[in-house]
Design brief:
Length: 485
């Protein structure tokens, strides 16, 4: 474990062109922390190494409290042609990244040329994690059909904010994306690298764009997959997503209708959607948990992250169960258990701290209710969720830095699906416009979230790999198509 000296910290907070002072080498060791550490065992078995880098909690006070940033590494296999390091982030915010080095098997050409680096962002996973007392794994809920159901959400948001206030309250103002970008550059300096290459998914695209804004001269090859809209990123990051969610739901409904003999949910798209509306207007108890109009939109949204036949089958099977047409599958029982008890990783606890620290929001509940009502006619199913109040309205700490304005010409390759329900395509294009040096690869006909190495599209994967390995940036924006099935 190393601790960055004052000179290094000041370099990281200064102008992007500043060069950090030399730092001691990172002390690599095995990843497993004990007999019960399954992730560590998996990393060790794959040949990974782990380490920690000490960074300031508040970069304005480099000699103050420090944080331990956990990193993992799988070294480049082609040492003669090694290019540098590729740091990766899976999204969230709140997602741990140590396991991302295990993608080496999915991208052997890239793994040959780069040391793959996973970094748990500050307050996430093994990086000085924040602890919140929550009885759920996410704050996301729909506001439901009326003021009474909205007020239930207000009470939950206030309770969750209070649960984080009872933890490490001192840390909350510093859970920012800007500080995580500074941590990334601290890791780059600790590894002795002049440049940092990067692969980020979902929220990881906003983190990557923030790094480009703050430290663009130190960026090498950067891939941003399923880009978040930099204009709205923050507690309201989903506020413009209802139309994209609706489109993804309609596509699933058409797929299900074409298989009406198997699922019995209707033989037309509209008939299937009517069954979905019946679920949303009803109230079913599953394993002691109530599934109603505050939960149904979230369930649908999460199941629409992927448009594979397997994902669609899961959603159709769970819909049958909620309509009383089939037994409740384990997938639904497990999801509801996490939603109503907080079991599992619950990455939204740390992720909420990031959202609230990055952008301030209205603290008046009526602001959110009026917005929902204005859009209820055009966004009846998903609008009450995407526009709902969040714990940030009651957060015990205010942002300590202004919102980052993304506007630079540093080269980057943006990848996205045109039907993405989580980071909608208009928002991806907004990121593309903000990064004037970027090129964009669009996967047409895809209604999913995240593409590279995930969708299996040869057109996308080949172009991204060529960029990372050979530096071949498309001369102009590119469209890839889904092969006919």
């Amino acid at each position: 474990m190393i601790k960055l000296g004052t000179a290094v910290v000041l370099a990281l907070t200064a102008a992007p062109a500043a060069q950090a002072a030399p730092t001691p080498p990172v002390r690599w060791q095995s990843c497993a922390t004990g007999s019960g550490d399954q992730l560590g065992k998996q990393l060790d078995a794959a040949g990974a190494q782990c380490a920690t880098v000490q960074v300031p909690m508040d970069y304005r006070k480099p000699e103050g409290r420090s944080l331990s940033i956990a990193i993992s590494r799988i070294k480049a296999t082609d040492t003669a042609r090694r290019r540098g390091v590729l740091l990766m982030n899976p999204g969230g915010p709140g997602g741990g990244a140590l396991s991302m080095v295990l993608l080496n098997k999915e991208m052997p050409e890239v793994a040959a040329r780069y040391d793959l680096i996973g970094m748990d962002p500050r307050f996430v996973g093994r990086s000085s994690p924040i602890t919140c007392r929550w009885r759920t794994d996410t704050f996301l809920r729909s506001a439901g059909s009326d003021r009474a159901t909205f007020d239930k959400g207000v009470r939950l948001a206030r309770e969750l904010a209070g649960g984080c206030a009872e933890g490490d309250r001192e840390a909350l103002p510093y859970a920012t994306t800007r500080n995580t970008a500074r941590d990334m550059d601290a890791v780059r300096a600790a590894l002795g690298e002049e440049k940092l290459s990067y692969l980020g998914y979902s929220y990881g695209t906003y983190l990557g764009a923030t790094y480009l804004q703050m430290f663009g001269s130190r960026a090498d090859r950067v891939v941003l997959d399923s880009a978040a809209d930099p204009e709205v990123y923050g507690p309201g990051l989903l506020s413009r997503n209802a139309p994209a969610m609706d489109a993804a739901l309609r596509r699933w409904a058409a797929w299900t209708a074409a298989r009406s003999a198997k699922y019995g949910l209707g033989d037309t798209r509209d008939a299937v959607l009517a069954r979905v509306e019946k679920i949303n207007r009803g109230s079913v108890r599953v394993g002691g948990h109530r599934v109603d109009d505050r939960v149904v939109p979230l369930w649908l949204f999460e199941r629409l992250y992927s448009d594979t036949p397997k994902a669609y089958d899961t959603l159709a099977s769970e819909a049958r169960a909620l309509l009383g047409k089939a037994p409740v599958p384990d997938s639904l029982r497990e999801r509801l258990a996490a939603l109503f008890t907080g079991v599992g990783d619950a990455s939204d606890r740390a992720g909420t701290a990031v959202l609230c620290a990055d952008r301030g929001v209205s603290r008046d509940p009526d602001t959110y209710y009026r917005d929902i009502e204005r859009h209820r006619a055009s966004e009846p199913l998903f609008g009450p969720m995407t526009r709902n109040i969040t714990p940030c309205a009651f957060w015990p700490a205010k942002p300590v830095e202004p919102v980052t304005t993304i506007a630079n010409s540093v080269p980057a390759l943006i990848v996205g699906a045109e039907g993405d329900p989580a980071t909608n395509y208009r928002g991806q294009q907004s990121m593309h416009r903000a990064l004037t040096g970027s090129r964009m690869i669009t996967l047409q006909g895809a209604y999913r979230h995240t593409v590279y190495l995930v969708d299996g599209n040869a057109c996308v994967d080949t172009k991204v790999t060529r960029y990372l390995v050979d530096g071949v940036m498309p001369a102009q924006d590119v469209t890839c198509e889904r092969p006919a099935t």
